[in-house]
Amino acid sequence: MRIISGNRKGKALKSVPGTGTRPTTDKVKEAIFNMVGPYFQGGLGLDLFAGSGGLGIEALSRGLDKVIFVDKDAKAIATIKSNLDQCDLSDKSEVYRNESFRALKAIVKRELQFDLILLDPPYQKQKLVDILELIDDQQLLNENGFVMCEHSSDVSLPNEVGSLKLLKKETYGMIRISIFHAL
């Protein structure tokens, strides 16, 4: 795994030890950022099921000012911190070990809004529509922001979730990427 583009291009990233986390392939990562960017002029990101932190770190490399990384697995948190240190991006990040809905409730209390929200939950435990509804209800997405959902290709998300509208969807083998933005 590596950073594909931006000011940290080519930096190697560690994967989370074990088989519980599947890293996003370079091909899919490149496709995601071509759909939402590919580069940013600052802004705030949220990598909610961060795993190794690869997607959020890619977003930082491509110009986001700061990314909040959340994962409930201790090995994932250690990997994220290691990858951020290795890329000299620790000062542009916050890393939290927490369950997704609890993390979102804590974010609501901070009154934050994001330019990019990355959702790549474990395929067997997805609650993407519930998470999208919470993001919409609590207005966590900036006016020109995007929510990226990585999910199994046999899962179809609705075209609209509240004021979030499906902008694009692409399938890469067993993986589907769905991009939402605010109406």
Automatic annotation (TrEMBL):
It comes from the Bacteria. Keywords: Methyltransferase, Transferase. It comes from Rossellomorea pakistanensis. CDD domains: AdoMet_MTases. This is 16S rRNA (Guanine(966)-N(2))-methyltransferase RsmD. Residues 1-23 are annotated as: Disordered. The keyword Phosphoprotein does not apply. InterPro entries: DNA_methylase_N6_adenine_CS, RNA_MeTrfase_RsmD, SAM-dependent_MTases_sf.
